[in-house]
Amino acid sequence: MTSYLKSHPDRDGFFGDYGGAELPPPLVPHFKEIREAYDKISKSAEFIRDLRYIRKHFQGRPTPISYLKNISDACGGAQIYAKREDLNHTGAHKLNHCMAEGLLAKHMGKTKLMAETGAGQHGVALATAAAYFGMECEIHMGEIDIEKEAPNVTRMKLLGATVVPVDFGGRSLKEAVDSAFQAYVPQADHALFAIGSVVGPHPYPMMVRDFQHVVGVEAREQFIDMTGELPDIVTACVGGGSNAMGLFSGFFEDDGIEFYGVEPMGTSSNLGDHAATITYGVDGDIHGFHTLLLKDENGDPAPVHTIASGLDYPGVGPEHAFLHKTGRVNYTSANDKEALDAFYALSRQEGIIPALESAHALAFAMREAPNHPGKSILMNLSGRGDKDIDYVVETFGIGEA
Ligand SMILES: *Cc1c(COP(=O)(O)O)cnc(C)c1O
Hints:
By secondary structure, the chain is α/β, with parallel strands linked by helices. The chain has two domains: 27-56 and 94-205, Rossmann fold (3-Layer(aba) Sandwich), CATH 3.40.50.1100; 60-91 and 212-396, Rossmann fold. Helix content is 44%, strand content 17%. The protein is built from 16 helices and 14 strands. Helix 3 crosses helix 5, helix 5 (94-107) packs across helix 10 and helix 6 packs parallel to helix 8. The radius of gyration is 20 Å and the shape is globular. The N and C termini lie far apart (46 Å). 56% of the residues are buried. Residues 92, 94, 121, 197, 237-243, 310-311, 355, 357-358, 382-383 line the site of pyridoxal-5'-phosphate.
């Protein structure tokens, strides 16, 4: 692990001003247990060996890098490459941290995995891990999302998970987090809470980042192998920020690379129409940590919108807030329309149907490419688009030839 990763966060889980762990008193001892277990177990030879085995023989890692030649030719300028997390088992990067969280739970002697899910992607990945490890799995999901994301609910149930409908408030992701945390308190002795991104109280932002680090480590080696050099620009979409942290962290010890996190600008820059937290957010607290936050007029987390439900969160991982403040990473955005154009382009021109989340990073790469002739851009193709095709085609059609 690199020196940046070793020294961030600090011992209390802070990245500069951001992060920390603001917990209800009953959870304090359990988070201490998780922190200590993570520190000890994740460094043990047995854990590292088990995780390597799982990544190779169950997840299908390493995932390749693909050169997007047709898109690069069409854009003119920089050459665009994609790290293919869509080829990771279950079709997205989320399984990288879910399998590791499951393995940690096993080493801690836990018998159950619990979490919230928004669109159901994290729920499916965690249910997959629970099935693999022979554990129980309880996923909390808003009633609105259950209706919208029926195929993922079916997947979770097929995988053996219990899906708990959340019927209060906005009946969506934020309430699902509240509900899952509440249900976790009396079960914390035998269950592990598995957060779905680099968010939540310490140690989750660090732990999930470290479990996603494999993406960047693989990508760096593969890119050098393929081109003989390092990429000039490295980019990924940012919801909570786990796929971005995974890719970026593989290149943090290298000089001269520009990093771009791409936030969803939705339909407009008006509050409520986007989820561009770093672009428009202010300091605040959500779900037990300090970060940048989109707030409404009462100071509460604001409603957010984006075409990509996996990016639909009014907060962002504390490390991203920190990397923005220090200027190490640039944050920009792509709107619904640009993401859709990129979705169609990658499908038609390269034979890869991307997740709408990942299409935001590609939209940025396609927009920037003409400004960087002779340079290279590496983007994280965080997931495949099968989950999005019905919605896209029913709403926007099959796309122009
Ligand atoms: C959940 C998801 C994201 C957003 O999560 P991050 O933690 O920001 O990476 C991005 N892409 C895909 C395919 C997802 O499923």
